[in-house]
Amino acid sequence: MIIDVASATGAKVSGPVPLPTRRKLYCVLRSPHVNKDSREHFEIRIHQRLIDIKDLSAQTLDRLMELDIPAGVDANVKLL
Description:
This is Small ribosomal subunit protein uS10 domain-containing protein. One of its GO terms (cellular component) is ribonucleoprotein complex. By secondary structure, this protein is of the alpha+beta class. The chain contains 2 helices and 4 strands, in the order αββββα. It has helices at residues 2-8, 58-65, and strands at 12-18, 22-29, 39-46, 49-54. The strands form 2 sheets. A two-stranded antiparallel ribbon has the order 1-4. It has a two-stranded antiparallel ribbon with strand order 2-3. The longest helix is centred in the last third of the chain and has 8 residues, at 58-65.
């Protein structure tokens, strides 16, 4: 989606570059009162990608800000 919008407006795109996956591990007791040795393990994996857009125009920036992003996906735009 982001690459299509940037390419359609004439910007140069490099990426997506996969960044290292962050893992968050949680250990939870199965029972609050007994069986302290019985535990459940849960894991959340966070996948990140880096997309570099060069030769950015005002039209490209406007179209990126209007882009509908699915739930659970976060996008950060940084101007350098």
